[in-house]
Amino acid sequence: xxxxxxxxxxxxxxxxxxxxxxxxxxxxxxxxxxxxxxxxxxxxxxxxxxxxxxxxxxxxxxxxxxxxxxxxxxxxx
Amino acid sequence: xxxxxxxxxxxxxxxxxxxxxxxxxxxxxxxxxxxxxxxxxxxxxxxxxxxxxxxxxxxxxxxxxxxxxxxxxxxxxxxxxxxxxxxxxxxxxxxxxxxxxxxxxxxxxxxxxxxxxxxxxxxxxxxxxxxxxxxxxxxxxxxxxxxxxxxxxxxxxxxxxxxxxxxxxxxxxxxxxxxxxxxxxxxxxxxxxxxxxxxxxxxxxxx
Lengths: 77, 207
Fold this sequence. Notes:
heterodimer; A: 77 residues; mainly alpha; two-stranded antiparallel sheet; 2 strands; globular; B: 207 residues; alpha/beta; Rossmann fold; 6-stranded mixed β-sheet; 7 helices; 9 strands; 40% helix
């Protein structure tokens, strides 16, 4: 496996791990046809099953991680 | 004076939150100068929306509810505005749809039929809730608060007379401010940040 592929795999693992940080009392309204409200366990299942919602969860986590370098911090004193 | 149509159904947990957070918009809009037509709960029907829009052209039309690429819904999930059916009724209005995916097809069609502007979401509008604790006081739910404060700002700016472009920018400023604040704190709700980014990224404004 190339260094780049190893790095990509690491990033995906990191993204998959992130829903585990969501508190158990939180549920996410994700809309869609079934208008679902999902717990962290549900989100992890969706990611593991490579469903459309799981794909969107990975996409949003990756977008967030990539955006950090461009985020203009606006902090009021 | 502005004339404002707002729909805010309430029939399950997600619309319960939308309904209560939209109440803040109604309170600001209903300042004695504006004319506010508040279609809440059972009044958020297609019949009422169409009847109102056939008689009057509101300056601003704000829809809160579920949605998809082609429609936005009202009470009990009934369609209110549907692409290819009644979207031309929003001609000359500034339209804000806080609903999933309506920015994809419906918003473009609303603009094609002559709306002044459209603000909405191209993908799902996401929000976290802690309804086990906060169902009866959704305005105090700090998981939901960042999502509704940022998305409420569009409507709050519009009802204060700002243009759609400025309202859109105001909302994005609030998103950035909340995200920055969460990133630099030990807040227990910082896990919401990626989904705030998601909403901000999928937030569209057509003029």
